[in-house]
Write a structure and sequence with these properties.
The protein has a domain of 77 residues. With 187 residues, it is mainly α. The chain is 82% helix and 0% strand.
Length: 187
């Protein structure tokens, strides 16, 4: 048992490393592209904003709050790709869930139709046998069995199928068991 547990751990770690490596190789290009586009403009904007703030607006810059705001901006910039990645990774899960629900719905439909057909077949076969027997008796009496037997069996099958299709099933009674209360019932 110990080796199976270790094997499962090794397989899980290899799969995780493979996924992380694949995502790193696959996403490094878009991440570097976005950083290459955003960072130069952010640096130019900061270099324009800083003198404007100091000279034109004549406001002091709160340098003590800068690390907090920089951390907040950095967390926002880093969280956006993670959120996009999570959304992209959730798409296959949604597709699989949709397909699974479609397959389950189709199986329920097929099961319901199969039950309906089986509910019709048994009375149809019984009707065909019974009416075929009656047709054989009448055909032997009137010397036209080759005509009466198939027609009687067809009529019996139709009546049996109609009976099977339109008969109602008994409603099953649901019994709910509840524990008795500890207090005596004074009625």
């Amino acid at each position: 048992m110990e080796s199976l547990h270790s094997t499962a751990d090794i397989i899980r770690k290899v799969a995780l490393f493979t996924l992380v490596g694949f995502l790193a190789v696959f996403l490094i290009g878009p991440v570097l592209t976005v950083l290459g586009l955003v960072l130069p403009f952010a640096l130019v904007g900061f270099l324009v904003w800083l003198p404007f703030r100091l000279l034109v607006q004549k406001r002091e810059i709160n340098w003590s709050g800068l690390p907090q705001k920089a951390g907040q901006i950095l967390r926002t910039v880093l969280f956006i790709p993670i959120r996009i990645g999570a959304t992209i990774l959730s798409i296959p899960i949604r597709i699989v869930a949709f397909l699974a629900s479609a397959v389950i719905g189709l199986l329920r439909l097929v099961g319901g139709l199969l039950g309906f057909v089986l509910r019709m077949i048994i009375p149809a076969v019984a009707g065909a046998l019974l009416f075929g027997l009656l047709g054989a008796i009448g055909g032997l009496t009137h010397q036209d069995a080759e005509f009466r037997v198939p027609v009687a069996a067809l009529i019996g099958a139709a009546i049996g199928a109609l009976y099977g299709a339109f008969r109602t099933r008994e409603v099953q009674k649901v019994i709910v068991l509840r524990p008795a209360s500890a207090a005596p019932n004074h009625g």
